[in-house]
Specification:
The chain is mainly alpha-helical. The chain has helices spanning 16-23, 26-34, 36-50, 55-79, 83-90, 92-124, 131-147, 154-176, 194-205, 213-228, 234-266, 274-289, 294-327, 335-356, 360-388, 391-394, 396-422.
């Protein structure tokens, strides 16, 4: 490229590592969101209760959801629109269906993440604090941070924290491998009863994350495009997402192995309280790394969960904003709408914890099961959105992957409904 006849333009070289660091964004936020309750709680419980038997189910769930979750980054990168706009193109019924489901489930999602974060706060505090007060505290701090406009820095913080977790978690896992039972019996489920099936539903519902989170991811990509005033390419979006998705699978497997090695072999019953469960998870690490690491691991887990909390609160608030923009494209979206949505969302999540949460494990199972039941609807809407814009015709693997994964999730949901109604 030249500016004149004989004057070549000098383009400053960008180091490869710097380019990829800048490229990663919504995919890492996706990973930060995913490693919350589904990994720290459900994967660990899966290993503690069933050994390695849940590993194939975990991997199948991740494989089945991959195409529909990838759409969350690929769709805005290709079209410049959010998935909400893609739903609107299908008809008001599609957008309305998604919003009705979201407006019902979003409060339980927030409550599950907030109470898990609060449990870690309880575990690290030198004095006793009620779970309600701890939950209110973490929600209030999250609201203040997001209203202060500091969320842009969270993308960089998330990269650092995910990198730290990617270092510590495999090390702890490798240290427990000699104690892990890899016998054929460890890979089989002894009893297939309603309790087991209900746990599988809860595990897969948020493994690695509910499919409707793809809408939240699409708003991050769109917001990033608007902030940078440039369109993310589909190749960059795929790289960003694949890195984040690979990390979520790695983390899930590590937590499952740790649960199977440390919790299952100890024979200690899983506590029902969030704080006690958080203490058990932290101690699971310290047994392998040493007592010196208790507060280090606890802090990393807390900050990771807090990043998840911030990401979900910001993401869901953006979803409401973009939904309003989709419904009323001629209406100016003011910053105070984000603030109002954020405050209402935090208060609603706190109300769920205060009035509906009685047992930590039961509540987490209920909240995560919602993600499983919503999956077929999200799969269909995402598939139709990509097909409407002709993207699935170009990406044949995504087309068949979406159909295959969606079919598996629909069959599993049908079996669940059958068992609930007729047994």
């Amino acid at each position: 490229m030249k500016t004149g006849a004989n004057h070549p333009t000098q383009v400053q070289a960008v180091p490869v590592y710097s380019r990829y660091y800048q490229l990663l964004g919504p995919g890492i936020l996706f990973a930060a969101t995913a490693i919350g309750v589904s990994h720290l709680v459900q994967s660990t419980r899966a290993g503690a209760l069933y050994g390695l038997a849940m590993m194939p189910i975990l991997l199948i769930a991740c494989a089945a959801k991959y195409p529909s979750l990838l759409i969350g980054l690929l769709y805005p990168a290709r079209t410049g629109k959010t998935l909400l706009q893609g739903y609107r193109q299908q008809g008001w019924w599609a957008l309305g269906t998604y919003l009705v489901i979201t407006l019902y489930s979003m409060w339980f999602v927030l409550a599950a993440i907030a109470i898990t974060t609060a449990g870690l706060v309880q575990a690290l505090m030198p004095f006793e604090i009620s779970i309600e007060l701890a939950t209110a505290g973490v929600l209030a701090i999250a609201v203040l941070i997001l209203l202060s406009g500091h969320y842009q820095g969270l993308e960089h913080v998330s990269k650092i924290l995910i990198g730290l977790l990617a270092l510590l978690l495999p090390i702890a896992t490798l240290m427990v491998l000699p104690e892990t039972d890899f016998s054929p019996a460890a890979w089989s489920i002894e009893t297939w009863d309603l309790t087991t099936i209900a746990f599988i539903i809860a595990l897969t519902g948020w493994m690695p994350i509910p499919i409707d989170a793809s809408v939240m991811t699409s708003t991050w990509v769109t917001s990033r495009n608007e902030a940078n005033q440039e369109q993310t390419t589909t190749s960059d979006a795929r790289i960003d997402f694949n890195v984040g998705y690979a990390l979520t699978i790695l983390f899930a497997l590590c937590f499952l192995i740790l649960g199977a090695s440390v919790m299952r072999t100890s024979g200690t019953p899983l506590p029902a309280a969030a704080g006690s469960f958080a203490v058990m998870v932290i101690e699971m690490f310290t047994r392998q790394l040493g007592q010196w690491s208790y507060y280090l691991i606890g802090t990393v887990a807390l900050v990771t969960m807090f990043t998840t909390l911030l990401a979900v609160m910001d993401g869901q608030s953006r979803v409401i904003q973009y939904a309003f923009r989709t419904i009323r494209p001629d209406q100016l979206i003011r910053p105070r709408m984000y603030s109002a949505t954020l405050l209402v969302y935090a208060l609603g999540g706190m109300a769920i914890v205060a009035f509906f949460m009685r047992d930590f494990s039961t509540f987490i199972n209920f909240a995560t099961s919602l993600g499983f039941l919503m999956a077929p609807v999200a799969v269909v809407l995402n598939h139709r959105a990509m097909f409407t814009d002709g993207i699935l015709r170009e990406y044949k693997y995504l087309y068949w992957g979406s159909i295959t994964g969606g079919t598996l999730l629909c069959i599993a949901s049908s079996v669940y409904f059958y068992l609930i109604i007729f047994t």
